Amino acid sequence: MKAALDIKAMANPAFGSLIVREIVKGHMEQDGKPLSIAVTFVSVPLVFSPKYLGDVFSNSNKSTGFVNWIGRHPEIIPGFPVRVKALKTYVISSLNFGLRHQIFSLNNASLASFKKGLKKEPRWPASDDRGELLRSANKLGFWINNVSSLSTIYASLGVKP
């Protein structure tokens, strides 16, 4: 990623809300089940994994699965709880922006996706870093739907709820 895009994307809750929306869309794709809001606090930092770890989402597809993916990329775990804490305010701002602008909805601590607040669907080519992040977010949401519990997700990442 280009450094300028990293700074703008990380500081922009509007873009963060699109990341959350893609996680929710991926999660709902299989059975329409909404996503627990608690998952966003670990999933957004995963999408924004530092590039020094490599492209952790490449060479994977929707059938890879969350636990299998974590097993393939143990380099994600060291320092991950620190990244979760560092991005907490950003995730909250992104959630607030998305809810305020009706990019997704909140009901019983679960998020559902809809594009009511979007005038048009955001699209970036595969070669664009923003498009890559959104595709990774969607894939991650899909994988998370197949994990049996929130505690399994948190434990797999070395994070305490």
TrEMBL record:
Organism: Acanthopleuribacter pedis
Protein name: Uncharacterized protein
Lineage, top ranks: Bacteria, Pseudomonadati, Acidobacteriota, Holophagae, Acanthopleuribacterales
Superkingdom per UniProt: Bacteria
InterPro entries noted in UniProt: ABC-3C_MC3
Pfam families: MC3
